[in-house]
Write a structure and sequence with these properties.
Length: 192
């Protein structure tokens, strides 16, 4: 009689779960390597699958990059929607005067809490030499502007300021500083 131990049954992971895991891994890898500097192999390794499996779900590296880019924009849109809802229900920070302020505070927190999404935004803008990337980024950015307008009711000039300030927050967060003003301490220190 054989006493061979029973093999542990391996759970087959559905393609939808693997797809989600690959997008999350792609967010991280593309955030630091960009479209051209990231290999599909590094994304596959992060998830524990073979590179050909990645291509069965995403036929090209560009399609995987676009999926990661979409996830990044979805994350910002969800952050805006949640912040506007929190403001409407009285759960926003006390210093928020309106829904747009609440969205700004929530966005600042997102940048601080998840550097991958911040850096992927920068990589997405940097990859805009690719026509398909540029088209997708422009469309998703326009959707964010419209979402902020519809959630806040803000006038165009205020929305423009909001998004300009958001871009400044992106740069400051990427640099690891809190302030970009010309007379702030770190600027003076860097110039010494």
């Amino acid at each position: 009689m054989s006493t061979t131990p029973a093999r542990a049954a391996r759970r087959r992971v559905p393609a939808a779960e693997r797809r989600e895991a690959l997008i999350e891994a792609a967010v991280h890898e593309f955030a630091y390597g960009g479209l051209h500097g990231t290999t599909v192999e590094s994304i596959a390794r992060r998830v524990g699958v073979a590179q050909p499996y990645v291509f069965s779900l995403f036929p090209t590296k560009l399609e995987l990059f676009l999926a990661a880019l979409e996830r990044s924009f979805e994350r910002v849109a969800d952050t805006f929607a949640r912040a506007a809802s929190d403001f409407a229900e009285g759960r926003a920070p006390a210093e928020c005067e309106d829904a747009l302020d609440a969205m700004g505070f929530a966005y600042r927190d997102l940048l601080a809490d998840d550097r991958d999404y911040l850096m992927l935004q920068h990589q997405s803008y940097a990859a805009c030499d690719d026509e398909l990337v540029r088209s997708r980024v422009r469309h998703r950015y326009a959707e964010l502007v419209e979402l902020a307008r519809s959630l806040s009711g803000a006038e165009p000039e205020r929305l423009d300021d909001f998004f300009r300030h958001g871009m400044a927050l992106n740069v400051a967060a990427a640099l690891g500083v809190e302030d970009l003003s010309s007379d702030c301490d770190w600027v003076r220190d860097e110039l010494r």
